[in-house]
Specification:
2 domains; mainly alpha
């Protein structure tokens, strides 16, 4: 057990193995009662990706950003050079995975077009609600990849891509990244409301 828990890769693999065992149990024991497997699989992957994405978004906004002013100046480089770049890697790719698996899930359940059309093409309230959530998530994904990440690269000089950037330009980039990260935090609340409401209040697939 120690070999598994002291290594992140092994721990993650163990988690997926346990999930695979549960999936095999469901497919064999309750095969006549379960819904189609592929929509379930992509919903599961969508949820895992979303937990990673929103979890890191909230980590930045509830923990890292508010704590930075109280960290001694000599310790701040450790955050910018080691912790933040790694967190931003998982942050942006979790956003990508959440978007992709969400689109695939909507396609598998035959409401992709209706959702992006906000239910106008179907007249189904669930499509309007899930569509609002999908559009909010798409805006958030755009902010991650095309505003937050480029500006964080400048502010933190990630991979030494901006070694000669002036201090005021770094400050401006950091502020831009923070404002759009805070925007995503605001949008994450109604986005999650729509996702849950579409399932729980309107019974969307």
């Amino acid at each position: 057990m120690t070999v598994i828990l002291t290594n992140l890769r092994n721990a993650v693999i163990a988690g997926f193995v346990l999930a695979a065992i549960l999936a095999a149990l469901a497919l064999t024991t309750w095969s006549e009662q379960i819904r189609p497997f592929w929509p379930f699989l992509f919903r599961w992957l969508h949820v895992i990706s979303g937990v990673m994405w929103i979890g890191l978004l909230w980590y930045f906004n509830f923990v890292q950003i508010p704590t930075m002013p109280s960290i001694p100046d000599e310790q701040k480089p450790a955050i910018g050079k080691h912790i933040a770049p790694k967190a931003l890697f998982w942050f942006r790719w979790a956003a990508m995975s959440t978007l992709v698996t969400g689109v695939i899930l909507a396609w598998l359940n035959n409401y992709l077009h209706h959702a992006f059309a906000l239910g106008v093409t179907s007249g189904v309230p669930a499509h309007t609600v899930i569509g609002i959530g999908m559009w909010l998530a798409t805006i958030m994904w755009f902010n991650v990849w095309f505003v937050i990440w480029p500006n964080q690269q400048k502010a933190l000089n990630i991979a030494n891509r901006f070694p000669d950037l002036a201090a005021d330009a770094k400050t401006k980039a950091a502020r831009m990244a923070m404002l759009f990260s805070r925007t995503n935090t605001v949008l994450s609340v109604p986005m999650l409301f729509c996702m849950v409401a579409a399932q729980s209040l309107f019974g969307a697939s």
